[in-house]
Specification:
By secondary structure, the chain is of the alpha/beta class. The protein is built from 24 helices and 29 strands. The structure holds 1-deoxynojirimycin. Residues 1-24 form the signal peptide.
Amino acid sequence: MKLRFLPLMVSAALVAPVASSALASNAGQVLEPARADVPASVAVWKDDKAKMDAFISELIGKMTLQEKIGQLDLQSGFRNNTGPFVNEDYENQIKRGQVGAVFNSYGADFARSLQQMAVEETRLGVPLMIAHDIIHGHKTIFPQSLGEVASWDPELVKLGAKIAAREATADGIMWTFAPMADLVRDPRWGRVSEAVGEDTYLTSVMSVARVQGFQGDDLSKHDTMLATAKHFVGYGLAQGGRDYHTTDVSEHELWTTQMPQFKAMVDAGVATFMTSFNDLNGTPATGSKFLLTDVLRDKWGFEGFVVTDYTAVNELVPHGYARDDKHAAEIAFNAGADMDMVGRTYINYLEELIEEGKVDESKIDHSVRLILEMKWRLGLFEDPYRYFDMARAEKEILSDDNKALARDAARRSMVLLKNDNNALPLNQDELRTIALIGPLADSKRDMIGNWAGAGPAHLDHVITLKQGLEERLEGKVKVNVAKGATYAFLREEGSPFAHDRFNYVARQTRDDAALQKQIDEAVKLAKQSDVIVLAIGEQEAFSGEAASRTDLQLPGNQIELMKALKPLGKPMVAVIQSGRPNDLRWESQNLDAILHAWYPGTSGGHAIADVLFGDYNPSGKLPMTFPYNVGQVPVFYNHKSTGRPHDEWTQKVRSQEYTTRYNDAPNSPLYAFGHGLSYSDFQYGEITLSSDTLTLDGELTVSVEITNTGKHAGEEVVQLYTRQMVGSITRPVQELKGFDKVHFDAGETKTVSFTLTADDLAFYRADMSWGSEPGDFQVMVGTASDNVQRLSFKLID
Ligand code: NOJ
């Protein structure tokens, strides 16, 4: 028998209107008077581990095996569709006590109705946890995750998560599947938009900031939520950049680039972990005891619970790692995956597996305990409806304050990639007409990007670029708008890819006459204007999950449009919206200025206008390399040297022939990690070191004097890198070790200093021990990874 139903014998004592209160009173709690923002009993209980343990032991003691297994099940509702399989019976399953948590079920009223099913219609009334992918906002949408990180401002990133948590927790959601901390080096992979970029240090800092933003310092507060460290681990290394594909990585590389950010989140107290879909070195991560138990629990001491990704247990079968779903459940559960997302394998098979002696019932109790602990910490046993707060939702969601914060986050995230002859900022007094041209000129949906929470249902709050410019210019400058081109994938009639199976992504059959007509209209408008502002990029659905590309150029006929506009000789300024690094070769050679705006969120149009007109001076820096072309991928700043390093700039051509290089493209990317311009001009003095040696217990200070010689006040992200010249294993040519975002008034000079210790130089050595190695090092300070000054020092015993 696969499905067991709950016994009909229900104890009257437990069927109170809020059954969990009955459980609470069973635990003998005395409630204290309420505080303003934290229900009293939660405030009293939250740190009392002994009381929590006693309560949960008592509850587990009352649970049948089926009820326990029910707690290990996570089901998806229909409010969003984030996976290939939908369970139409989940409401009945909740009523049968077979579901411990739900997601894709947002909306306070709807989520409350699900909670009522769990609390009022099941025997023990154990409340549900309600989850959702709150990635860069719930309804007020902040910049796409990769973009937000381009601010290089952990406090801002933390604030984005905090506001998202405030909104989501008023709307019935208490658990988010974020942050995603997969290291990303392949922009073909659509999920780079959800990540933190190509550097492990930056990923660690920003992921911890997000955990702190979501969880705050106290999970029992009504406006904090459980965070999830995902995807554990290696998902970002998908071969060919194709989503869900296999990953194969050396032990050193795994521990050096993929693991530290997850360890950092454990240390920061992240509540849950999500397994990744991928096969990692022959073992699918969801079935890996090594990852989920040996590393996560035993080595790192993680105390929360582990949820699988969407049907990832069932997927052990097509991976070729399990014979069938039952075998898959045995492998995943024994590996250490506490909760099964969507796939129903635990519900269907764990009981049989226990009867057969393949799974230990005490292990089930342990997983149930971890899940109930989180329900306790959230305060759900005290009040299962505390996150359905219509009054707070009304007041806080999409509030003016939140939109203002989102606007600030968006403008701080934008990266000025190019600005020839100070084409930007635009001067309103010198303009009569602007031609705003491109498929993203007036698109609300694209403004908020992918994984935009409940944002798509609230597009009336979103400010497009057209709106932003018009509001900024108040009719003093005319804005002429034309689409000019499409960003749809254009396919020729009869091409093998000529189908529309995937609804989200815009595709259309090429119709030359219609496309030319659109271009002609745009050219006509541009002729009547003083400047062309291009609103170009990718449709939001071109990145995100299941959104890999093999070509990184801007899609559709956008380049054709720009080629038609170019001969007009007007200044051409591009605002690019995209969730990934694109191949911008043509744009970089032909446009006067390029502002990368990512998907800037609800207030995006205002934020872009702020930057275009110099009301905000851009300060973003790239968290991920922009390749020269797709053939260079993966291309990242912290690569190894090779035995035949190539010097692109040498004149000695002969000596460079047999070096590591391409015949048809440079090695260096179009825009390097850390690159980003400003309207200010930051002049770096010579860097100095406090000593040319560093002892194992000592400190070394590296300093530089920086002057803002420009006319505008602005912020500069000063970056610190090191290189270990010789190691017991080879070391990267550069590694980020620190950064500081510093404000300068026009004309202001400041000294910026960083302190290095031997700990900063530690790594997994040849024998896999963690530590530093005495020897020669370089320290580098600069404005981008490819624009640094270097000095040498020695690390000595
Ligand atoms: C699959 C994605 O990989 C994961 O990141 C997400 O949280 C789940 N779907 C739930 O939507």
